Amino acid sequence: MSTNASSIATDPRFEFLRAEFALRPGRLGAMTRITACCLLTVILCMVFRIPVPAYAAYTVFVLSGAEAATTLRTAIGGIVAITAAACLSLLFYALDAGEPALRLPLMALATFLGMYLSRVIVIGPLAGFLLVITQTLIDDIPNFDSLAQFIMWLWVVIALPASLVAIIDLAFGQNPTHLLRDRVLGVFSDIEHTLLTGDAAQLARCLTITAGLPELRQRAELVDNWLKPIHAIDLALIESLDELVRIVGLLPKGSHSARTPLLIATRACREALLRNSVPTIAAVTVKDDTLRGLDSRSRPIVVAAAFTLNRLLDGLARRLGVVHEEPSRERVGSFFVPDAFSNPDHVRFALKAALATMLVYIIYSGLDWPGIRTCVVTCFFVALSSVGETVHKLTLRLSGAMAGGLLGALCIVFVLPHVTDIGGLSLVVACVAFFCAWVSTASERVAYAGMQMAFAFFIGVFQGYGPTEELTVLRDRVIGIVLGNVMMSVVFVTVWPVSAVDQAKAALAKAIAALGRLLREPSDGARLFVAQTLQRARRQLSMSIFEGDLFAGHSGRALARQRLADLDALTAATLVNVDQAERDTCENFRASAAAWFEDPQAPSVPAPASDAIAMRLALLEAEARPALRAAIEADLLLSAAIRSSAARAR
């Protein structure tokens, strides 16, 4: 028995589930806030007889973010979107209420614009989705006065939960500034652990965290204006932190004497951030005798780590000195993504989504089966850029819909017949919402299943303003979810299919070109761009498993994964090279290395350049500065990484 329990505990699947459903700091509070908002929304809908309470309750899950800034921005966007959708719907009704032949083209146009805007506008619109949904209601509510009145109620259906979520999150939610600080402190703690023990296993998780810090830092400015004047300093600190994670991950075990000053400096950085004070040390210095005692691989890594830590110490000191300055007004963010009007993939994505949406609308209209209208909702929320991402969300949506539908059916059959007042209904809603919130606050790998569970449960249970015993509505709506998922998958797989592996390869190509530019001329933001690009490639590769052998198959995916691993090693070696205190190295080699990064199909770094580095190192006097020796050894380290990567690429 103990053997079976031990094998289950060490099963990777068990470890995955345990990590996803662990009550990490802040998660219980998020679950409680979502549950409270759902409960208040349902109670208000029942008391004031607001229509479609299921959508109002589900809106809470859609708008709830990881921290207050995201929730506030999404809630405001939701209110603006429903306002625009309501006005445009009334305008469309004036044009096509008596012309069914005109309604279909207008719906298709609205779907296309909504899905296109979801790709090119930074905040991501809801107006297109709401506009199409309201246009489908004319089939069930032919009277224009009743239809206009229902549209006005739909504004309340979205605005009510959006307001509740925004208010509760601002009062009790996670402050993004505190969340940002906690994540940075966690990264520093993991670096300390690695320096103490030599175990770098935790640093892989840190790379995912540091890649997301710039976006979190931007959201923090929405609620804390004092962060605006130090935006550039904070981005430089995040860049240096990511760089330190990669460099420390290269450090071989041993060399304890060299690790000690790095550990002291890392602790000083963490304590300065924790106490919001100037670091207790101004700079980290590794003694020459210590550097001389290191091997040729450890020496350049230690020098680069010290160089990076000095940038962190200096940045933290400068950060404290400008906290109380007036906010800078120079930096203005763009409303559109950079390639909004130049990338044809945005148009193709919108066309595919519009095609799938109109097909499911035609299907349920032709079958005269309005109960499966949820297929239209599904098409809007399941669409993503690549096939892998779409199938991933399809899997979560189907599993969540089945689980939520089953949960709703059990409640309808066994619980709701015994519910006699709103107090009993509130208890049922609270229990289910809390459980669904537990799932929806996990990582993106499983979170959407929790949202779908809530949606399927709400649309099945809330069929009126009292207890229901009807299972037909629940059945129809779950069928609609399945239909929408299947149609989106068919369209995205057959029409202009986009492979997650291809997207990962494109991201890797951008990263390797950026490394070449970094070697030629280090610049602010270049390192951070590489880190974020590698993270995008890593995410797409994780989604590619849902594509099976549809595109490149296992071999193409395996090659991309190998390329990503090689590029991670090349990035770390490049950072070690550019972060040397001494710059008196072989310029011919650096030019050759940069040329190889810009054209990875080249036959690796020319041997004469590497031989020149080795000769230069051999000619150094024994009394030469260790930092100079480390700089030349950094060239050798990068040369070895390039040769290894080039050999595997053949």
Please, could you describe this protein's structure?
- By secondary structure, this protein is mostly helical.
- The chain folds into 3 domains: 24-174 and 345-494, no CATH class; 176-321, no CATH class; 500-649, no CATH class.
- 74% of the residues lie in helices and 0% in strands.
- It has 26 helices and no strands.
- It has helices spanning 2-9, 12-20, 27-48, 53-63, 68-96, 100-120, 127-136, 144-172, 176-197, 203-220, 231-250, 256-275, 288-292, 298-321, 344-366, 374-382, 387-415, 422-440, 447-461, 472-494, 500-520, 526-543, 553-578, 587-598, 607-618, 626-649.
- It is elongated and about 95 Å long.
- The model is unreliable at 5-10 and 323-333 (pLDDT under 50).
Unreliable spans are 5-10, 323-333
Series of H and E elements: HHHHHHHHHHHHHHHHHHHHHHHHHH
Taking all Cα atoms into account, the compactness measure Rg is 28 Å
Helical/strand content category: mainly alpha
DSSP summary, beta strand count: 0
Count up the domains: 3
Helical amount: over 70%
For the largest beta-sheet, the strand count, sense and barrel status come to: none
- The average pLDDT value, as a whole number, equals 82
Silhouette: elongated
Outline the secondary-structure elements.
Blueprint: H1 2-9, H2 12-20, H3 27-48, H4 53-63, H5 68-96, H6 100-120, H7 127-136, H8 144-172, H9 176-197, H10 203-220, H11 231-250, H12 256-275, H13 288-292, H14 298-321, H15 344-366, H16 374-382, H17 387-415, H18 422-440, H19 447-461, H20 472-494, H21 500-520, H22 526-543, H23 553-578, H24 587-598, H25 607-618, H26 626-649
Helix pairs in contact: 3-4, 3-8, 3-18, 4-8, 4-19, 5-7, 5-8, 6-7, 6-15, 9-10, 9-11, 9-12, 10-11, 10-22, 11-14, 11-23, 12-14, 14-23, 14-26, 15-16, 15-20, 16-20, 17-19, 17-20, 18-19, 19-20, 21-22, 21-23, 21-24, 22-23, 23-26, 24-26, 25-26
